[in-house]
């Protein structure tokens, strides 16, 4: 829907307000540009509808270079909501709402119908249509500003800190309204804010700006999980980071992908030598296609050594596994309660894809719940896991 290709904006005699931005906003997305004041959010947004000229690079709407579109048409086709709602004080609410459709020369009947529809969408009484903006509260005025942006059936709406001046409760109500309307009408929205709470509540796509540069561009979940740098971390805030980690870490992120395993058909001699070599006392058992079959333990192996000859003879198949996509918040208690020192991770076809060690879990849970200020990086985590695995598992498999 909107694409920025290597877009730079330099105001006369200044350092770049936006520098080499590459962003793709898809149809139906709620895209928030977030950053501190002066980071270039407004400039970036206003280049979409050519309210700001583009110094270098290209901006496309539906594949068309905006520089080839007539700027007046462009602005009529793209909705725009600003902070102090831009209502004309000498026009009634109705006249304000249907201003753009009127410019587009809609019939009077269609205009009347649209005005009624919109006041309903704004969740205000129809009688308000004949009032003047000053007769409405700030929040009510901004409701009108929001629905007016939806008035001319534009698919794309730009909103520049539209709720910045409102008190928190009014602000939340308007956030809910805009979210409902966007979902219902399938609009694409580009929304500038400096408030991370607002961005996280509304956005399906977040672009983080700092000093004219795009620092990170991703879905909110990924930004929470992997902030690009300290600037982003600060923007998110430590509390939220810890919370997000605990909430959204998946098994696959902390699993070790090279578990010590042995083939079902291997001999016990081979099993014993692998255990000695890797210094472990249990081995996961898989078939030729890596399907999870169970595990074997060293003590059983030693007892039956004289009678049994292959891994399958002493296989224990009642094994608790988890899926790589499972969330730790849902599995961690069960893993810890079972007392195993590790849990195998299997995919949907029951293929062994990794293991999660108990000690890695304990570390992670400890850090996220009790808020370690210096959380382990994933590299450190997997090194930690490796140490644990080669140190050998306790014989407490159930
Ligand atoms: P934000 O919306 O993130 O607060 P802006 O896009 O408004 O940031 O501003 C980015 C930078 O460009 C700032 O340094 C600002 O001073 C500068 N700037 C914005 N508009 C103009 C303008 N019309 N003329 C000159 N400089 C401008
Ligand atoms: Mg701004």
UniProtKB/TrEMBL annotation:
InterPro entries: AAA+_ATPase, ABC_transporter-like_ATP-bd, ABC_transporter-like_CS, CBS_dom, CBS_dom_sf, Gly-betaine_transp_ATP-bd, P-loop_NTPase. Its EC number is 7.6.2.9. It catalyses: a quaternary ammonium(out) + ATP + H2O = a quaternary ammonium(in) + ADP + phosphate + H(+). CDD domains: ABC_OpuCA_Osmoprotection (cd03295). GO terms for molecular function: ATP binding. It comes from the Bacteria. It is a peripheral membrane protein. SUPFAM superfamilies: CBS-domain pair (SSF54631), P-loop containing nucleoside triphosphate hydrolases (SSF52540). It is found in: Cell inner membrane. Keywords: ATP-binding, CBS domain, Cell inner membrane, Cell membrane, Membrane, Nucleotide-binding, Repeat, Transport. Belongs to the ABC transporter superfamily. The complex is probably composed of two ATP-binding proteins, two transmembrane proteins and a solute-binding protein. This is Quaternary amine transport ATP-binding protein. It comes from Bombilactobacillus thymidiniphilus.
